[in-house]
Amino acid sequence: MRFSILSFIGLTSAAVLPRGTTPGSWNVTLTVSSAANGYNARELTAIYSSPDTAPVTTTCTYTYIPTQATVDTCTDASFKYTYSGTTVSVTQTVDNITLSGEKELSETCNGSGRSCTIQGTVPATSASA
């Protein structure tokens, strides 16, 4: 009998949720600011919600000021996000289940384009226990 290692890899990374559990989503607000001197800042608030859990609010702050220490923190250590300029990707552990999702969100910028706000809902599309 032959087994493929790839089939076992697929089994370990598949979504695993208790029966009746809904993955939920994050309501995301991200503000991105920059200046000509190289200053960059991001402030993100993400509220995870699903019918099966109480809402979880996470706030993240990133600040880069040339010649000073970079600040990059989130109120929940399990929360990770990236923003590619068009897509917001999120990973977070809630009730011992690691959830992730991504979605392309549009941004609204001020007249100079140095400050933009990205808002929208990112659905959790995968989960593992």
Automatic annotation (TrEMBL):
Name of the protein described by the UniProt record: AA1-like domain-containing protein
Domain of life per record: Eukaryota
